[in-house]
Write a structure and sequence with these properties.
The chain is mainly alpha-helical. The chain has 16 helices and no strands. α1 packs parallel to α6 and α6 runs antiparallel to α11.
Length: about 400
């Protein structure tokens, strides 16, 4: 009889996930910051077509993400799905290379968005489950991804400036290979079996829960309010005399704030109720976007840049903690996929399109308008808190 392999240690699990986070967020950083420039400058696509291609990937993620996440819950082997998606992402990304015309790039974006983008909610769900079982802090593990993202956008920015955007595609392709290799070191993550009476379509049972839908809406509104900042802040600052280098430092400052919040979260904010974290995130976002819309002073922008620790990180951690407390283990990957579709899909698309339309008319006022979405998310989080308390008859952990 063959011996049963020993379960991996907590350190082995942490290192496996940390390696994958480092590799995958290095790819994400280079892709988000420099790939649109490659499509435009090296691929010859117009700015409108670049926007179309990037939107195509977002739409694909919104549709495919929940399907892949539900697949994890059904096969009950997150590592196998993550490995398959990692290796398949190489071929999907390679589709961008052969023919750089808009319709081919859009087709490639639809395929790539269906395979690569769903990885992130799946690894978050698997890492959080493993962190809880093994007793280490998820926030500090996720911090590795943010640190990798920060290093890449700083180092790669200088490299691509020196060698031109033609190098973006091969560098990203190599990054995809390294990400796939790092997936081989992921620890086993076995999803617990569902109860015998569990629904066969867990995504539908989740969406029938008013509390779960409120959580998705609150997170989508707060995280979506970042879309105009992500899309247009550098353009806005450049038009008002802030150089690209300074704009890059302002971006890097926000990521640094995110890293610091992940580092201290376990001893501080993670002890708060998830809805408290969501409301802190929404209020922080509202203040941030109001100031960004009203000022182009570098010291002022640098001061509010630290609010990224709340607008993004507190919202992110609060949402994940709510899922951990409210969603059964056998449905968490599916729930994480629906969350990704709501925040990175619907929320970002709606706020991004509205922000672009407003920017063409009122410029900086478009950022301030995003404060409305942040406050909407705060109100929805408060509603979720009241609903959870009323259902349980006393203050709950929500």
């Amino acid at each position: 009889m063959l011996p049963v392999p020993a379960a991996p240690t907590a350190l082995r699990c942490w290192l496996g996930f940390a390696g994958f986070y480092a590799a995958s967020f290095a790819v994400l950083g280079a892709y988000m910051q420099f790939f649109p420039a490659w499509l435009h400058q090296s691929g010859g696509l117009s700015k409108e077509n670049v926007s179309l291609v990037m939107a195509g990937q977002t739409v694909a993620r919104t549709v495919a993400g929940p399907w892949w996440s539900q697949r994890v819950d059904r096969v009950r082997d997150a590592r196998a799905v993550m490995r398959w998606l990692s290796w398949a992402s190489i071929g999907a990304f390679a589709l961008y290379g052969p023919q750089q015309v808009w319709w081919w790039s859009l087709l490639a974006a639809l395929v790539f968005g269906s395979i690569y983008s769903p990885l992130y909610p799946i690894v978050d769900a698997a890492a959080m489950q493993t962190a809880g079982a093994r007793g280490f802090a998820f926030g500090r593990l996720r911090m590795v991804g943010s640190a990798s993202y920060l290093v890449v956008i700083l180092v790669a920015g200088f490299a691509f400036e020196a060698h031109g955007t033609d190098t973006v595609f091969p560098v990203l392709l190599l990054g995809m290979v390294l990400m796939a290799v790092s997936s081989l070191a992921l620890p086993p993550v076995v999803v617990p079996p569902p109860p015998s009476a569990a629904p066969q379509a867990p995504w539908w049972s989740l969406l029938r829960s008013r509390q779960f839908v409120l959580l998705l809406a609150a997170s989508a509104a707060i995280q979506g309010s970042h879309a105009t900042y992500y899309n247009l802040s550098t353009v806005h600052w450049n038009d008002h005399g802030i150089g690209k280098g300074t704009a890059g430092l302002l971006w890097a400052e926000g990521i640094l704030a995110e890293i610091l919040m992940f580092f201290v979260a376990r001893q501080t904010i993670e002890r708060l109720r998830p809805t408290t974290l969501l409301m802190l995130g929404g209020l922080g976002a509202a203040v941030r976007w109001t100031v960004v819309g009203a000022s182009t002073s570098v010291p002022v922008l640098a001061a509010v840049g630290w609010l990224h620790a709340f607008s993004f990180t507190a919202t992110y951690l609060g949402t994940l903690r709510a899922l951990e407390k409210r969603v059964p283990p056998h449905q968490r990957a599916t729930a994480q996929g629906l969350l990704g579709a709501a925040t990175s899909g619907i929320g970002m698309v709606v706020c991004g399109l509205l922000g672009g339309w407003l920017y063409a008319r009122i410029e900086g006022g478009a950022f301030a308008a995003m404060a409305g979405f942040a406050l909407l998310g705060t109100a929805l989080a408060f509603w979720l808190r009241r609903l959870a308390d009323r259902n349980q008859g006393a203050p709950s952990e929500q």
